[in-house]
Amino acid sequence: MLRFHKRQLSEEKYEACAVFDINGDGVPDIVSGAYWYEGPDYANKHFICDVPAIQEYHDDFSDYPMDVDGDGRLDIITGAWWGETLRWRKNPGEPGVPWETFDIDRCGSIETIRYFDIDGCGVPEIFPNTPGAPQAFYKLVRDAEGRGTGEFKKHVIGEGASGHGMGFADVTGNGRTDVVLAGGWLEQPEDPCAGLWTFHPEFSLGSASVPVLGYDVTGNGLTDLIVGQAHDYGLHWYEQGRAEDGSRTWTKHEIDMSGSQFHDLWLVDLDLDGEPELVTGKRYRAHNDGDPGAFDDIGIYYYKIAGGKFEKHVIDYGPAGEASGAGIYFWVQDLTGNGYPDIVAPGKDGLYLFENLGQSEE
Q: At CB < 8 A and 24+ separation, what contacts does 305-309 make?
């Protein structure tokens, strides 16, 4: 069993966060919504910019570091449902100076955003989950020296509405990462920027998490899918198989039906045993009070995958205000330098840091 030390960093109710070195001192800092928290103790809180509050939400469903303008400082990529706009915030390089916000594209309501280097260029592309619009990604335009120019090029890869849920998985095993949506998957062609990808409507994942995770659960060489229900009860995995005619099959297995609102998932080696664990938790009041299980206790958990057994371990659990959920966009990274990944958990219940102390002696 791993041990964690929990502390609340802020009562602010932003649902996204990220970890990166903002001020260039070589120490990781924490970003969440309108503020950043200075490492290594995260006690000093610095203003970034105003983030609109709308119907008990804030218009910030992702915080991701990227040097957009090539000045050597990491900026923030963000976007959310209400603003319907993908944006970046410019790091001014000086504490106390508000960050300017620039629009990238008015792409429609954004459930949240994920990032993946789909073309191997060394810089992740931006993949917003826009349930009502076709799937697209945005590629940073760089100059001859490889520095960001502040501009992005949009590539639309799907035709129909994306639906709720998105992730990355090499479904075919050909070495190219595909994009998984709630109603099927988009097969990456040789050139991911060349136009529409082929859509395979092979499953229906419900109110799927962002991300949907691709992982070979059984070790048989086929990529399976791990999916949370973001607005209902349930955490599942879908086993990839083959029918007699050679067609692909997907068999649904339960992981944990005791909780709801599993909106964000991570695969990370928390205990340093060489195998990744599934880390997730409840997004507190994901649809305010409108989802099944909205009034249940909240928590954060990790699961030892163990070939499909998914052994559950509780990191935190209890009433909101005492325990923490996982938000819509939490972060896992070693902040203390002990080698064990820590967990930064934002949400409408506040911003929490879970320091991973390693294995207990029990």
A: 305/215, 305/217, 305/275, 305/276, 305/277, 305/278, 307/217, 307/218, 307/219, 308/217, 308/218, 308/237, 308/239, 308/253
140-145 long-range contacts, CB within 8 A, separation 24+: 140/66, 140/68, 142/70, 143/70, 145/70
- Measure CA 313 to chain center: 21
Closest CA to 210 of 251, 262, 250: 262
**Residue 241 is encoded by which pair of tokens?**
């198989």
* Main-chain phi, psi angles of 195, to 5 degrees: 145, -155
pLDDT in tens, 36-51: 999 999 999 999 999 9
- Find the angle CA(100)-CA(104)-CA(108) to the nearest 5 degrees: 120
Find all residues with CB under 8 Å of 328, minimum gap 6, and list them: 15, 16, 61, 62, 112, 210, 263, 264, 283, 286, 347
- Looking up tokens 């219940």 gives 349
Q: Work out the mean pLDDT of the chain and round it to a whole number.
A: 97
pLDDT tens, position by position, 293-302: 999 999 999 9
Separation between Cα atoms, residue 328 and residue 80, nearest integer Å: 11
Q: Quick one: tokens of 174?
A: 């050909």
Report residue 308: phi and psi, to 5°: 115, 0
- Ordered by where they begin, the domains of the chain are 2-356 (2.130.10.130)
Q: What is the pTM of this model?
A: 0.97
